[in-house]
């Protein structure tokens, strides 16, 4: 597997590398890392373990507080990414660093543009990008604008950026977070091809199964320290998870069977035309009954965001009807949706799930601030607010110093707990949950799963959208698949359904017929349509 | 009414439009450079004022018009650099820092004039220079266009040239390419080793220089003195022009010309026995209406589900 | 030092760190003022005047005579009202620079009612005040609605509206409202029954033009503070200001909150105009507000939009203004130095905000994964 002979220096080496931020947070603690040339090394760890920070140190985006960094055997100080790039280090970030309104070719050459003097030569940029794309097998359209191409192509463009600069060490940060199983396979094939050409690859991942598939060795980080490095073929997903968390944990979810009741959510022929960017929705029809979890699978960007926002009242559908327990919701505003009993755990909590600078207590009451006991007749009740916050902090085991602490001071997992606590405590009829465990560590993840199932068993209808197929398959009672804004598959029984099977539907290789998708199962009680 | 129409269509009026629009064009294009780099310059007013004052004082005391002009531009650039330091090095809020610098310019210029000349109003007592008007040989002979295009002040010609120059800078050069990347997605620029902060500094410096040029036009173009607070809000109108022009060089250029036209119109109509206060309110009212229309047009095109924060923060 | 911010799980630690932060804030505020005064000191020295004499006049002058104290109180009242008027929209993340126009609209409306509408004793004061608030609120509503419903840039809208209202005011003052037999441009006097009682009539000590408006201002500040911290509308304003997407997601009607913030702000600015009319000048004068509207914006920013702190900041700023006038009368140093000092305070204060911002941003980046 390794192409390095024992005399050669390692591709990259970190010696007691440490990064402490001005506010005291020690993100990376005395990490010793040694990656051989031509090795594919995975770095795994929970959120906040320091993986991303370590990669940023290797790329010059951050400077170490102490310790030494060696590239190709020579000690280096990387004051900024251009120093790293000059030494042959390339990085593909999780949040793709592409300028949306520029073309792919423009993005690839950004910073080292061809052209004489002050002028920028666009034609040469396009030519060179096309040539590089052909040579490396990474297919892109150089003239297309970045905000108009697929996520897969954007990622390939990022890799081309690194290749254009002569990278010999490629760092990938959560590269498969937004890819289908098949696109992931394509990526891994590209990675192996690059490795055959002498490239060293370092990648961060959450997905232990993928790590096992493509990497040679795995390094595990926990709370800023490098806990250990093992050969991939000597490890299992469970043993890696144990190293990450420090205790034996089970990766499966224990879930009692669902007992669905009446139809709570009835979506009929919903269509949506976005004005501007976004995915259109076509003819979406499905039900969710009280007491069941319906999952929605799909590659990100196929309409899940639009659909969840429509269900929560943040967007208006262009056509079709939506009923929650008989109430027509389509013409209502968000307040109306919430009054109809719909709760929403949003996809991006930092964007709209919390107000970072406000206190935990204030964050917990946004949907009920004008109702008794929190606020009555226009006046807030501070004591009621505090009691409410303390109760929820206790019930949801939120690690926070005080209800008046700002939410921004909490870790990702605890922040998500605040969101979940707020949404679940409203006793919703319908819970729309998107990316429930994004950026949440494993311990908190299981807590969320338990709460979700408890809400279901209390009679809520749950609509769960997730980019994590494993999560969906273990939590959902029924599953729908969305592609290009249409429902393409429906699984009422998930026993024996594998993620590769679902992946085929996600990619459009296969699809169910409309009758299969719209079939109305026999209901235990009369429907209220 | 006929008199008004006659006035508007006269060559004298059109020539006046170019003259009046000069400071708006320069300041707005300068502000555009900064805006596209992601650092709005709210202190254009302060740059203009500082430049106008410095230009008059230096040319008056030194006897050299050109030295005064250079110092004026330098003063305008200095204000913008102070804004850059406040925003980029010290992390100050754009609005507060801008307002603070405008205040500083207003106070410092008035203080300087009072301290040096013992005059509360301005430098009228000090003989300072004017920048030359230029008569272009062949063009001045063209019947109608000649009277409009020739015989303008040097700075007006610079303003007219600045539109294609800024367009070329932003759209065709590597610097402009980096600048737009920095303004649209600084993380992407940083990740390829572009010095984001340096570009933002340069962008602000350029905006200050152009605003400075606008400033010396005010105190050294057709008059040769500085009057306290003589910029009279032009820096803010330039901001309006940047938005109305859709953040594009030629759009901003024409929006600024539009403001010049409205102001020139107000003056001309004033000569026709229409109450001056109401007439001088016209450009502002026009801007307000244009702002509302523009927003309405943008609104009906964009997605209502787009970020509320983006919609609010503009 | 603990590992992560969240492991400050001890409540006592948290409260102690809060108290530390407050102490740091206060001492930094003091240091800022001293530094700005130092800069002014150097500038005065540089132009060859006596800074000690100038500062003595500026810093002790306002307290030497009761009329000067009165001048301070009266100026602070207007300035603080103006600061309060922008603090509310600022709290909702709206950059409203429209206090000037709203002030003149309020003064205009109050003058028309006071001069032309006969009213019984107490109403003769209350009705013009009410009308001033309504007029100010109406003028504030225009950019508010444009922003809330059309996302139109409120900085430009408020600046344009200021210019329009000021010119309308000048026009009316020079034509319809002009007092025919007087040499200068001004309106008729408001009837005595509408005037806000001068404080010197109560205290027996000469206090210049300081008037009941002071009490009005204090009550307004208190009311606004209660609004922001204790009412549901105030909660909505705070959430919209903190994260408008979060507010919308939580069911808050964001456009309505934005409009409300502009209207409330406009109403308070209208009251400032009424104060100038009924308490200070007794009639409409051209350019009554001077540069106060702009300085009110600065006061609000310095006070971080907290209504109670705005009062303190307003009194402080006013003290410097009055002191500056005295300094100019008694020494060779012009009042512009006060503007410079104020500008330096603004710039230093924004620099002071950096450590907090940086800390929070870093913590956010750390925790965001």
Please name the defining characteristics of this protein.
heterotrimer; B: 314 residues; mainly alpha; ABC transporter involved in vitamin B12 uptake, BtuC; two-stranded antiparallel ribbon; 15 helices; globular; disordered C terminus; C: 369 residues; 75% helix; disordered N terminus
What's the domain count of chain A? 2
Number of domains of chain C: 1
Shape call of chain A: globular
Would you state the CATH class of chain C?
Mainly Alpha
Helical element count of chain C? 15
What is the structural class of chain A? alpha/beta
Q: Helicity of chain C, in percent?
A: over 70%
Mean pLDDT across all residues of chain C, rounded? Answer: 86
Mean pLDDT of chain A: 85
The residue fraction in helices of chain A comes out at 25-40%
Q: What Rg of chain A, in angstroms, do the CA atoms define?
A: 25 Å
Instruction: Tell me the fraction of residues in β-strands of chain A, as a range.
Output: 15-25%
CATH class of the largest domain in chain A: Alpha Beta
Could you characterize the architecture of this molecule?
The complex is a heterotrimer of chains A (529), B (314) and C (369). Chain A is of the alpha/beta class and 529 residues long. Chain A is 32% helix and 23% strand. Chain A has 2 domains: 12-245, Rossmann fold (3-Layer(aba) Sandwich), CATH 3.40.50; 263-518, P-loop containing nucleotide triphosphate hydrolases (Rossmann fold, 3-Layer(aba) Sandwich), CATH 3.40.50.300. In chain A, the strands form 5 sheets. In chain A, strands 6-7-8-3-9-10 form a 6-stranded mixed sheet, sandwiched between helices. In chain A, strands 16-19-20-13-21-22 form a 6-stranded mixed sheet, with helices on both faces. In chain A, a hairpin with a 2-residue loop joins strand 21 (478-483) and strand 22. Chain A starts with 11 loop residues before the first strand and ends in an 11-residue tail after the last helix. Chain B is mostly helical and 314 residues long. The longest helix of chain B has 26 residues, at 11-36. Chain C has one domain (50-331): Orthogonal Bundle (ABC transporter involved in vitamin B12 uptake, BtuC), CATH 1.10.3470. Chain C is built from 15 helices and no strands. The interface between B and C is large, with 50 and 54 residues.
Strand and helix layout:
The complex is a heterotrimer of chains A (529), B (314) and C (369).
Chain A: E1 12-20, E2 26-35, E3 40-45, H1 51-59, E4 66-71, E5 74-76, H2 81-86, E6 89-92, H3 104-109, H4 122-136, H5 151-164, E7 169-173, H6 181-196, E8 200-204, H7 208-214, E9 217-222, E10 225-231, H8 237-245, E11 263-272, E12 281-289, E13 293-297, H9 304-312, E14 319-324, E15 327-328, H10 334-339, E16 342-345, H11 349-353, H12 360-363, E17 375-376, E18 379-380, H13 382-395, H14 412-424, E19 430-434, H15 442-457, E20 461-465, H16 469-475, E21 478-483, E22 486-491, H17 499-507, H18 514-518
Chain B: H1 2-8, H2 11-36, H3 44-62, H4 65-89, H5 94-117, E1 133-134, H6 143-149, E2 152-153, H7 154-172, H8 174-184, H9 186-191, H10 196-220, H11 234-244, H12 249-270, H13 276-280, H14 282-301, H15 308-313
Antiparallel strand pairs in B: 1-2
Helix pairs in contact in B: 2-6, 2-7, 2-10, 2-11, 2-12, 3-4, 3-5, 3-10, 3-11, 4-5, 4-10, 7-8, 8-10, 11-12, 12-14
Chain C: H1 11-46, H2 51-64, H3 66-91, H4 99-116, H5 123-150, H6 154-174, H7 199-203, H8 213-230, H9 232-242, H10 244-249, H11 254-281, H12 292-302, H13 307-330, H14 336-352, H15 354-367
Helix pairs in contact in C: 1-2, 1-14, 2-3, 2-13, 3-8, 3-9, 3-11, 3-12, 3-13, 4-5, 4-6, 4-11, 5-6, 5-11, 8-9, 8-13, 9-11, 12-13, 13-14
């Amino acid at each position: 597997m390794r192409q390095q002979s024992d005399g050669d220096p390692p591709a990259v080496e970190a010696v007691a590398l440490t990064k402490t931020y001005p506010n005291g947070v020690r993100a990376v603690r005395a990490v010793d890392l040694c990656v051989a040339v031509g090795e594919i090394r995975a770095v795994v760890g929970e959120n906040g373990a320091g993986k991303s920070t370590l990669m940023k140190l290797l790329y010059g985006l951050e400077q170490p507080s102490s310790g030494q960094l060696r590239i190709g055997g020579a000690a280096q100080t990387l004051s900024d990414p251009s120093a790293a790039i000059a030494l042959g280090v390339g990085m593909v970030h999780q949040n793709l660093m592409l300028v949306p309104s520029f073309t792919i070719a423009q993005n690839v050459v950004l910073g080292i543009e061809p052209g004489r003097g002050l002028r920028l030569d666009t034609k040469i940029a396009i030519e060179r990008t096309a040539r590089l794309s052909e040579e490396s097998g990474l297919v892109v359209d150089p003239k297309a604008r970045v905000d108009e191409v697929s996520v897969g192509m954007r990622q390939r463009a990022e890799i081309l950026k690194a290749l254009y600069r002569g990278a010999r060490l490629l760092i990938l940060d959560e590269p498969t977070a937004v890819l289908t199983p098949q696109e992931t396979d394509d990526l891994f094939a590209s990675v192996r091809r690059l490795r055959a050409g002498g490239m060293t690859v370092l990648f961060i991942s959450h997905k232990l199964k993928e790590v096992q598939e493509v990497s040679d060795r795995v390094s595990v980080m926990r709370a800023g320290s490098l806990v250990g490095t093992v050969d991939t073929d000597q490890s299992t997903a469970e043993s890696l998870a144990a190293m990450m968390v420090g205790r034996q944990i089970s990766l499966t979810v224990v879930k009692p069977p669902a007992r669905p009741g009446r139809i709570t959510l009835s979506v009929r022929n919903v269509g949506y035309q976005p004005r501007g960017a976004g995915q259109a929705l076509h003819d979406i029809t499905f039900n969710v009954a009280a007491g069941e979890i319906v999952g929605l699978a799909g590659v990100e960007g196929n309409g899940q965001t639009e659909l969840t926002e429509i269900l929560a009242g943040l967007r208006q559908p262009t056509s079709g009807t939506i009923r929650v327990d008989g109430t027509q919701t389509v013409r209502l505003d968000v307040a109306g949706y919430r009054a109809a009993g719909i709760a929403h755990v949003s996809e991006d909590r930092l964007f709209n799930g919390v107000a970072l600078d406000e206190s935990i207590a204030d964050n917990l009451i946004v949907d009920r601030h004008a109702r008794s006991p929190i606020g009555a007749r226009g006046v807030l009740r501070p004591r009621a607010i505090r009691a409410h916050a303390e109760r929820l902090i206790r019930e949801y085991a939120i690690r926070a110093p005080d209800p008046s602490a700002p939410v921004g001071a909490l870790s990702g997992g605890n922040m998500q707990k605040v969101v979940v606590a707020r949404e679940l405590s409203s006793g919703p009829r319908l819970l729309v949950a998107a990316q429930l465990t994004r950026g949440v560590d494993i311990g908190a993840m299981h807590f969320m799963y338990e709460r979700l199932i408890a809400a279901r068993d209390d009679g809520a209808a749950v609509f769960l959208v997730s980019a994590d197929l494993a999560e969906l398959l273990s939590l959902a009672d029924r599953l729908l698949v969305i592609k290009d804004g249409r429902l393409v598959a429906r699984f009422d029984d998930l026993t024996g359904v594998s993620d590769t099977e679902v992946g085929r539907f996600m990619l459009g290789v296969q699809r169910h017929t409309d009758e299969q998708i719209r079939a109305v199962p026999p209901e235990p009680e009369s429907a209220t349509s | 009414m006929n008199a008004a129409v006659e006035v508007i269509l006269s060559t004298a009026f059109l020539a006046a439009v170019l003259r009046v629009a000069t400071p708006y064009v320069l300041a707005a294009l300068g502000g555009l450079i900064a805006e596209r780099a992601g650092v709005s310059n709210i202190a254009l007013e302060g740059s203009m004022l500082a430049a106008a004052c410095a230009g008059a004082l230096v040319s008056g005391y030194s006897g050299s018009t050109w030295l005064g002009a250079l110092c004026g531009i330098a003063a305008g650039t200095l204000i913008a650099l102070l804004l850059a330091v406040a925003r980029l090095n010290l992390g100050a809020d754009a609005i507060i820092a801008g307002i603070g610098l405008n205040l500083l310019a207003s106070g410092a210029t008035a203080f300087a004039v009072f301290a040096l000349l013992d005059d509360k109003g301005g430098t009228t007592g000090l003989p300072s220079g004017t920048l030359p008007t230029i008569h272009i040989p062949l063009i001045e002979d063209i019947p109608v266009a000649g009277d409009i295009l020739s015989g303008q002040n040097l700075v007006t010609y610079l303003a007219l040239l600045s539109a294609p120059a800024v367009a070329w800078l932003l759209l065709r050069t590597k610097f402009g390419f980096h600048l737009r990347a920095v303004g649209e997605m600084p993380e992407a620029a940083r990740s390829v080793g572009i010095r984001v902060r340096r570009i933002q500094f340069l962008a602000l410096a350029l905006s200050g220089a152009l605003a400075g040029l606008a400033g010396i036009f005010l105190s050294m173009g057709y008059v040769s003195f500085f009057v306290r607070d003589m910029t009279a809000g032009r820096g803010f109108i330039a901001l309006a022009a940047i938005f109305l022009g859709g953040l594009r060089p030629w759009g901003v250029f024409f929006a600024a010309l539009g403001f010049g036209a409205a102001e020139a119109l107000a003056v001309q109509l004033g000569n026709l026995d229409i109450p001056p206060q109401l007439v001088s309110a016209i450009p502002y009212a026009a801007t307000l209406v244009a702002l509302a229309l523009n927003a309405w047009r943008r609104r009906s095109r964009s997605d209502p589900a787009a970020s509320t924060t983006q919609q609010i923060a503009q | 030092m603990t590992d992560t911010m969240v492991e400050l799980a001890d409540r006592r630690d948290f409260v102690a760190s809060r108290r530390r932060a407050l102490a740091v804030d206060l001492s930094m505020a003091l240091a800022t003022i001293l530094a700005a005064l130092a800069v002014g000191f150097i500038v005065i020295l540089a132009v060859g005047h006596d800074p000690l004499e100038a500062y003595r006049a500026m810093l002790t002058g306002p307290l030497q005579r009761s009329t000067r104290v009165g001048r301070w109180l009266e100026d602070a009242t207007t300035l603080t009202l103006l600061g309060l008027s922008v603090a509310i929209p600022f709290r909702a993340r709206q950059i409203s620079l429209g206090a000037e126009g709203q002030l003149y609209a309020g003064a205009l409306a109050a003058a028309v009612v006071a001069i032309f509408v006969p009213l019984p004793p107490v109403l003769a004061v209350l009705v013009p005040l009410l009308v001033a608030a309504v007029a100010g609120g109406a003028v504030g509503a225009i950019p508010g609605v444009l922003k809330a419903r059309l996302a139109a840039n409120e900085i430009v809208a408020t600046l344009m509206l200021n210019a329009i209202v000021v010119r309308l005011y000048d026009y009316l003052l020079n034509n319809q409202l002009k007092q025919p037999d007087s040499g200068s441009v001004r309106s008729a006097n408001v009837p005595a029954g509408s005037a806000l009682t001068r404080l010197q009539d109560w205290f027996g000590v000469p206090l210049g033009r300081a008037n009941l408006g002071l009490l009005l201002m204090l009550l307004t500040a208190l009311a606004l503070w209660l609004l922001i911290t204790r009412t549901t509308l105030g909660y909505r304003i705070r959430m919209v200001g903190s994260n408008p997407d979060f507010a919308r997601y939580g069911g808050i009607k964001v456009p309505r909150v934005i409009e409300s913030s502009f209207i409330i702000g406009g109403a308070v600015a209208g009251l400032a105009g009424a104060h100038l009319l009924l308490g200070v000048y007794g009639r409409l004068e051209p350019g009554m507000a001077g540069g106060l509207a702009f300085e009110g914006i600065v006061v609000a920013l310095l006070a971080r939009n907290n209504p109670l702190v705005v009062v303190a900041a307003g009194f402080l700023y006013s003290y410097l203004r009055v002191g500056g006038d005295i300094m100019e009368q008694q020494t060779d140093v012009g009042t512009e130095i006060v503007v410079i000092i104020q500008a330096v305070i603004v710039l230093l204060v924004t620099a002071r905000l950096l450590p907090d911002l940086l800390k929070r941003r870093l913590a956010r980046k750390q925790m965001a994964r």
